[in-house]
Amino acid sequence: MNIIKYPKQEEWAEICQRPHLDITQLQATVNTVLSDVRTRGDEAVKEYEERFDHAVLTSLAVTEAEIDEAERLVSEELKAAIVLAHENIHQFHAAQKFEGHKIQTREGVTCWQKSVAIEKVGLYIPGGTAPLFSTVLMLATPAKIAGCREIVLCTPPNREGKVNPAILVAARVAGVSKIFKAGGVQAIGAMAYGTQSVPKVFKIFGPGNQYVMAAKQQVSLGEVAIDMPAGPSEVCVLADETANPTFVAADLLSQAEHGIDSQVLLISTSEDMMQQVQAEVERQLNLLPRKEITQKALENSRMVLVASADEMMALSNAYAPEHLIIQTKNYDEMAAQVVNAGSVFLGQYACESAGDYASGTNHTLPTHGYATAYSGVNLDSYCRKITFQHLSEEGVRQIGHAVELMAGAEQLDAHKNAMSVRLNAIEK
Amino acid sequence: MNIIKYPKQEEWAEICQRPHLDITQLQATVNTVLSDVRTRGDEAVKEYEERFDHAVLTSLAVTEAEIDEAERLVSEELKAAIVLAHENIHQFHAAQKFEGHKIQTREGVTCWQKSVAIEKVGLYIPGGTAPLFSTVLMLATPAKIAGCREIVLCTPPNREGKVNPAILVAARVAGVSKIFKAGGVQAIGAMAYGTQSVPKVFKIFGPGNQYVMAAKQQVSLGEVAIDMPAGPSEVCVLADETANPTFVAADLLSQAEHGIDSQVLLISTSEDMMQQVQAEVERQLNLLPRKEITQKALENSRMVLVASADEMMALSNAYAPEHLIIQTKNYDEMAAQVVNAGSVFLGQYACESAGDYASGTNHTLPTHGYATAYSGVNLDSYCRKITFQHLSEEGVRQIGHAVELMAGAEQLDAHKNAMSVRLNAIEK
C-alpha cells in the first residue's frame, strides 16, 4: 500500500481518484446482444447461454423441483445462517416503511404522499466461482416487504445447466417469485424487454461484471430504471491510536479480496498505528487463498497520515466511500459528521462483513464516489412516492387566484383557464 | 381527439403508446459542447451563449443588484402569488422530513438510517417565451429544506443578457445560492464538470428541450446524478357521468397547450360525458392563444370509452400517467387503486394547474411511462439515506458465526477472517 504523509489539501483530489472505468468499448457487443434478445426472446437467450456459459438449456425457468433439490444440497448449518441473516435484513428494512400524513397546506387544500411498490422488479445475481447468495437476500427481502407483485431473478447456470443451490435456497427464503437461468447481457435484456418466459420488469437491481454494468446502463436510457451506477467495491477506514491493528488489517483485506480493481483507503492520525496495520496486512495476506487478487488491489491502495480527527473526516467525505469504518475513540461524534458515504461501521466490532452478510443493513451500495448523490438500496428503492391532492370549494378560493396569476405570467392560458372555470363555478 | 370505444385488452398497449423519442441523433452535437465546456470552462460557455442565445456576456454570475432590479420589475400581485405558492410547497415538502429510528436486529447489533442532504445540487430552468419561474420554486424549495449547502441555478439569458425577473424573484424567495446565465447543453456541462465560475454539483434537476435532456442523460453516465429521465408532459383524466365536462375539457386543454408532443388521455364510462367533453374542448380551444400547438397535441390524443370503473383504473395503471385526474363519484375508492402515476388529483376541484403552481405538491414528475419505476421530485430527491451500524461484543457473538459461514460459502475468506479475528478476541 502506498503511504502518503500529511498531504496538502491540493493533493486530496489525487488521493480520492478511482481507477478509471471505460465501458464504452463494450457498448457495441452489448448492444448486439440486447437487440438480439429484444427481437428473438428466449431463443436468443438460450443461444448466448450456450455460447458464454457453455450451458445447453431446454427451458430457462428454474422449477420447484430444482429448488427442492437445492434445499437438500445446502447444509442445515448454512441454511440456518441464511435464515438468521434474512430475519435481520427483514427487520431492518421492514422498519423503513413509509407512513404518509395528509397535509392541509391551506384550508380545503389537502396533499399527501403514498408509497406504492414497483409492480415488477428484476434481480441480477452473477455466477462464477463465488455464488453471491447473500446478494439474493439483500435484493429480494426489501422487494418482498415493499409488496412488489413480481420479483424476478436471473442468474447464470453452470455448464451442467444448474444454478448454485445456495442461491436457490436464499431466493426461496426471501420470496423471489420466478427464477431464470440467464446471465450477463442476455439476462439484463430479457428482464428489460421481456421474453416468452421472462417477464418484462420496471426496475433492475444487482451487481455484475463490466458487460452487465454496460447493459444495465444501456437499458436504463429507455426501458427500465436501475438501482444505481456501479463500480468496483471500496472501503475507507478511519483509525486513531485506539484502533485494533489486527482488526483494521482484516477489514482492509476483506475489501481488497473482491477484485484487483477494489480500492482500500486507510486514514489515520497515528503513524504508529499505520505501521502496525501494515505489518498485520503483510502477515494476514499470506494466509489468504485469494492472495494474488488481494495483493494487486492493495497496490492501488493508500494509507494516509493526517494531523487531526477533523482532517480524517474531511478527507473521507471528499472520497465519499462506499463503506466507511470508523475505529476511533470518539466514533459517535465522527459519525455525526459523515456527509458522503454508503454505509458506516462504528467502533471496533462493526466489521464490514457484519453488514455484508447479516447485521440487517443492505450491502448494495454506491461506489466510485456516487455516494455523493445516491443512497444504497433500501426499501425506498422498490417503491414510488405518489402524491395525491384534493381541493374543496374553499381550497379553490384559497389558491385559485394565485394559480391564475402565475399561469398567466408563464403565458400558459389553458392552465389559467382550468382554474378560472372552477372559480367561476363556485362564485355563481 | 381520437375516440376508441370499448377496446379489447389486446389493444391497450397501442392506447398506452407514447410518441417515440429518439435523442441519439443529437448525441454528437451534445458531446461536442459538453467536452468543450469540460476543457475550456467559462470561455466555452460564453461562446455558446453568444451562438445559441445571442447574448454577449462578460460574466456568467447574476449579481445581487440584478436580483434587486428584478424585484422592482415584478408586480406586487405576482410576488404575493409566488410567496403563497412557496409557502405551500415549503409546508408540504418540510412534512416529508425523515426521522430514522435505531433498530436492534439482534442483541448488540444496532442499525439505523440517517437522511443527509446532497451537498451541491444544480437546477436547470429553461428560457424561451414562457419563463418557468414556478419550476424554480418546485426545485429550489425542497433543496433548501433538505439543507443542500450549495443550490446552483442555471438559466439562459435573453439577447440583452438579462434573466427573466420572475425567475430571479422566485430564486431569491426559494433560497437559491448562486444563479448563472447559461442555457442548454453548456449549462448542463458547466454544472456537471464545474467551470471557473460555476461550481461542480452532484445532482442536476430540471426540465429542458431535447438537447438538455440528451446532455443530462450523457453526464448521468459518469459525472452526476439526475432527477429522472424526461419526456413530453401528459395527463390522464378518468371521468364518469358525474364529472363536469367544462372542467374536464379545461384540464385536457391545459395539458395539451404544453407542446405539440404533449399527450392527453380521457377514459370514461359515459359516452354522453365524452361527447359533452368533446364539444367543450372545441369551444374552449377557440379561445386559447396557443390554439395551434394545443390542436396539434390533441391530434395525438385519445378518448377511450370503457365498461366499468375498474377498467378505467386498470387502463390508467397500464398507461402510468404523469398526471392523473379522477373526477368520479367514488374518487376516494379509486385513489386507493392507483398503482402507476406521478401525481393524482381527486374530485372536480383539484385541477392539474393547482398542483402545477400552488397547492404544495411538486410538479416535476415522471413522464413517458416512467411512473412505473420513478417518483416525482420530493424531499428524498435531495438526500441520501446513509446506513450506520454498531456492534457490541454481544453483537459479534450473536451474528459472528453466521457471517463466518456465509462468507466461507461465498469463498470470501478475508471477509470471514474479519469476523473471526473479532470472535477470537472476545473469546479470549
UniProtKB/TrEMBL annotation, chains A, B:
Keywords: Amino-acid biosynthesis, Histidine biosynthesis, Metal-binding, NAD, Oxidoreductase, Zinc. Its EC number is 1.1.1.23. GO terms for cellular component: cytosol. One of its GO terms (molecular function) is histidinol dehydrogenase activity. GO terms for biological process: L-histidine biosynthetic process. Its cofactor is Zn(2+). It comes from the Bacteria. It catalyses: L-histidinol + 2 NAD(+) + H2O = L-histidine + 2 NADH + 3 H(+). Binds 1 zinc ion per subunit. Substrate binds at S233, Q255, H258, H323, D356, E410, H415. Belongs to the histidinol dehydrogenase family. This is Histidinol dehydrogenase.
